[in-house]
């Protein structure tokens, strides 16, 4: 199934299922409106088996869903209100290259545990949204990532049971203001205002069962690429993660509760940002007018346009 949140008649995002025909079905169409969780995917992802079975009954009864408007669907982030967003640092190629460009050697501790930082769960943007560099920044960058969505919550989740807690995956762009980030992290803490301003997510969540045959050794083999103004700059594969998804889930839940709808970012795939590639090789940092497209095999394309910062 493909799960999305879209703007229909109101300014409030509506959780929908996207059908192969291009039509969509709301949870209300499936007569799930009596459940409080039908108003958001944050909690509905804990009941995907119910949703899937009801959708099958709906389609088998001959229902075809609702055609999208002529202008197309306007997407919000598929999860609009997660309790938490943890972003890991799981691709060795990205870590090594990014550190080398800053004149730093690889840290031995990175190979001992998967590390993450908490990002701003209230600054999520959807497919098609405009993005601007935060105040004082001249070095706006994209980051090509895969994002898992938690279905069943849990605490101290064993790695061997981690897949039972993942609803599916979506495309994630962890926008970065490199000049702000560089100065902040020199103090010895994680990224703050260099990451605090925007994270794009979407356009939809592809449920875990749809990518089951791509899972090998705890990793997912999916091609990933990033384009700026139609020019491909980044290309990698999600299978090159050093740490596996079960390891990330186990670490995230160690002595902490995960909740349905929580977001778990993979970190940037190798070559997946301008920092790694070098602005001198990409046409510079992102600027107003640039269109950034992140694409992950089977998951779709996440598009955003850079605009000037409003006064």
- Tell me the count of domains: 2
Order of helices and strands: EEEHHEEHEEEEEEEEHEEEEEHEEHHEE
Question: Got a strand count?
Answer: 22
Give the full name of the CATH homologous superfamily of the largest domain.
Answer: Fumarylacetoacetase-like, C-terminal domain
| Name of the top-level CATH class of the largest domain | Alpha Beta
- Can you summarize the main beta sheet? 11 strands, mixed
Average pLDDT level: 95
Quote the distance from N terminus to C terminus. 41 Å
Task: Please estimate the helix content.
Answer: 10-25%
Cα-based radius of gyration, to the nearest Å: 19 Å
How many helices in DSSP terms?
7
Percentage of residues in strands? 25-35%
**Remind me, CATH topology of the largest domain?**
Fumarylacetoacetate hydrolase, domain 2
CATH architecture of the largest domain: Alpha-Beta Complex
Structural class computed from helices and strand pairing: alpha+beta
Short note summarizing the structure:
This protein has seven helices and 22 strands.
Provide a descriptive summary of the structure in words.
The chain is an alpha+beta fold. The protein has two domains: 2-76, no CATH class; 85-306, Fumarylacetoacetate hydrolase, domain 2. Helices cover 16% and strands 31% of the residues. It has helices at 41-44, 48-60, 92-101, 178-185, 245-252, 274-277, 279-282, and strands at 2-7, 13-18, 24-26, 74-76, 85-88, 116-118, 124-125, 130-131, 140-141, 144-150, 154-155, 166-173, 176-177, 199-207, 215-216, 219-220, 223-228, 231-237, 257-258, 263-268, 291-296, 300-306. The strands form five sheets. Strands 1, 2, 3, 4, 5, 6, 7, 10, 12, 14 and 20 form an eleven-stranded mixed sheet that branches. It has a five-stranded mixed sheet with strand order 8-22-21-17-18, with no helix packed on it. It has a two-stranded antiparallel ribbon with strand order 9-13. Strand 15 and strand 16 (219-220) form a beta hairpin. The chain is globular and about 60 Å long.
């Amino acid at each position: 199934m493909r799960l999305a949140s879209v703007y229909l008649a109101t300014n409030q995002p509506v959780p929908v299922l996207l059908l192969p025909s291009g039509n969509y079905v709301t949870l209300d169409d499936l007569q799930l409106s009596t459940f409080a969780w039908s108003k958001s995917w944050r909690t509905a992802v804990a009941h995907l088996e119910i949703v899937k079975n009801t959708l099958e009954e709906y389609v088998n009864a001959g229902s075809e869903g609702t055609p999208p408007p002529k202008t197309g669907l306007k997407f919000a982030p598929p999860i609009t209100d997660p309790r938490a967003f943890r972003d890991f640092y799981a691709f060795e190629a990205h870590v090594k290259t990014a550190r080398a460009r800053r004149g730093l050697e690889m840290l031995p501790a990175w190979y001992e545990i998967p590390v993450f930082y908490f990002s701003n769960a209230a600054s999520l943007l959807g497919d098609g949204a405009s993005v601007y560099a935060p105040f004082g920044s001249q070095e706006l960058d994209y980051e090509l990532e895969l994002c898992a969505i938690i279905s069943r919550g849990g605490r101290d989740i064993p790695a061997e049971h981690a897949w039972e807690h993942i609803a599916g995956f979506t495309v994630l762009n962890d926008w970065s203001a490199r000049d702000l980030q560089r100065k902040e992290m020199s103090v010895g803490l994680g990224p703050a205002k260099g990451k605090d301003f925007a994270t794009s997510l979407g356009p939809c969540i592809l449920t875990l069962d749809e990518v089951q045959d791509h899972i090998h050794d705890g990793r997912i083999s999916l091609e990933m690429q990033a384009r700026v103004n139609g020019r491909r700059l980044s290309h990698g594969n999600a299978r090159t993660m050093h740490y596996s998804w079960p390891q990330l889930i186990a670490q995230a839940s160690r002595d902490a509760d995960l909740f349905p709808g929580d977001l778990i970012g993979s970190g940037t795939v190798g070559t997946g940002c301008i920092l790694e590639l070098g602005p001198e090789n990409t046409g510079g940092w992102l600027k107003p007018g640039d269109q950034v497209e992140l694409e992950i095999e089977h998951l779709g394309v996440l598009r955003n346009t850079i605009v000037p910062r409003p006064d």
